[in-house]
């Protein structure tokens, strides 16, 4: 896999690599992270489709949420920032999009956000007008065919801007103001987001939606369960009692006032710091009950040798003398963080059920193997995951491939291996613009003294 070229800012000037702080003693810190990307973008979609104004409290403010807000504004929703009590930015008030006369052509920038490129086209189908979808260069490589075919099967015209048949971004959705819905068969084996996208709008189809998946297993099932839970919370009837079938009854989506949980997937790198440094990290406000896949950190990190407790809403993770290798199936978006820990483990690890990570922000399996091995590690791709064996790591540059979770994986490796630099740490802005600051704060709290910043170098 070719490593990314040196990052440049808007004026073309090379941006120095980020010297990953090395933990010369165990971390001992309490950390909170911004709101969940998956919950923020689901609630934004539901609010745009709801039967009245809604409020999101303590939502995420990041590139992915900004792209979702802008996309929904383009489709006619009014979204306003209002003061709130969240530590990471204002609340959001959303006035849903109308169902008016013909609307002018609009352009939607999906960036690299899977939730925008998958969740928004079905909403555009309900709009009376054409919407052009495009995104970052790598977004054009992410799997989109299932959504395009699904909309066509529902009677919605989707074409390339030159009139051809697209199978990926960019494409044009010609909304006619309504979608009949009914029984729809799709292959969602490349991304759970295909299922979530259609379920989120299903209640607004005239006949509702009976969605059926056929093909290899759907990955990231926790994210579909999250979609079903938020829909039910907004009064939508969803029957998911038969595997691979979801039936959404037609009807209104109730307006809501909803506090967004912190992003438990993004809590992962901080919790991993406890293992990487043999220290302790506490996260207050850990939800008692959640649909977020990041709740799996409790079992994953325990299996890797940490002591994990959840008391009075505070998750405490303490690393042991060594990180244990393990076998994990379907770690979904947690996989890059898990892989970084596996590269520091004393025994071999296997990650399975994550073939679809090849279609994420980058081909994550190839990127992880390349970057772990670049530091002297021993990682190998399998047909559906990774094998990572113990090997002494050394200093070097970890490339991010515009992938926020590759950048944070580099930060974890840098805690345990002196002299690691991360190319394009700013890519963490996709879901956590505050990452470098929160990481530095964690290290400044005690335990590990933060290493002097080293001069960035091109690698
Ligand atoms: O619906 C969501 O919010 C997400 C679903 C998952 O996508 P895949 O099913 O493509 O893995 C996950 O990896 C992504 O980060 C967020
Ligand atoms: C796969 C991810 O993002 P997206 O929502 O763009 O698919 C991720 O955040 O790990």
Automatic annotation (TrEMBL):
CDD domains: EPSP_synthase (cd01556). Pfam families: EPSP_synthase. The active site is at residue 333. Residues 24-437 form the Enolpyruvate transferase domain. Residues 1-26 are annotated as: Disordered. It comes from the Bacteria. InterPro entries: Enolpyruvate_Tfrase_dom, Enolpyruvate_Tfrase_sf, EPSP_synthase, EPSP_synthase_CS, RNA3'P_cycl/enolpyr_Trfase_a/b. 3-phosphoshikimate binds at residues 37-38, 42, 191-193, 220, 333, 360. Pathway: Metabolic intermediate biosynthesis; chorismate biosynthesis; chorismate from D-erythrose 4-phosphate and phosphoenolpyruvate: step 6/7. GO terms for cellular component: cytoplasm. Phosphoenolpyruvate binds at residues 37, 114, 142, 193, 364, 405, 430. One of its GO terms (molecular function) is 3-phosphoshikimate 1-carboxyvinyltransferase activity. Its EC number is 2.5.1.19. Keywords: Amino-acid biosynthesis, Aromatic amino acid biosynthesis, Cytoplasm, Transferase. GO terms for biological process: amino acid biosynthetic process; aromatic amino acid family biosynthetic process; chorismate biosynthetic process. It catalyses: 3-phosphoshikimate + phosphoenolpyruvate = 5-O-(1-carboxyvinyl)-3-phosphoshikimate + phosphate. It is found in: Cytoplasm. PANTHER family: AROM/DEHYDROQUINATE SYNTHASE, PENTAFUNCTIONAL AROM POLYPEPTIDE. Monomer. NCBIfam families: aroA (TIGR01356). HAMAP family: EPSP_synth. Belongs to the EPSP synthase family. This is 3-phosphoshikimate 1-carboxyvinyltransferase. It comes from Arthrobacter nitrophenolicus.
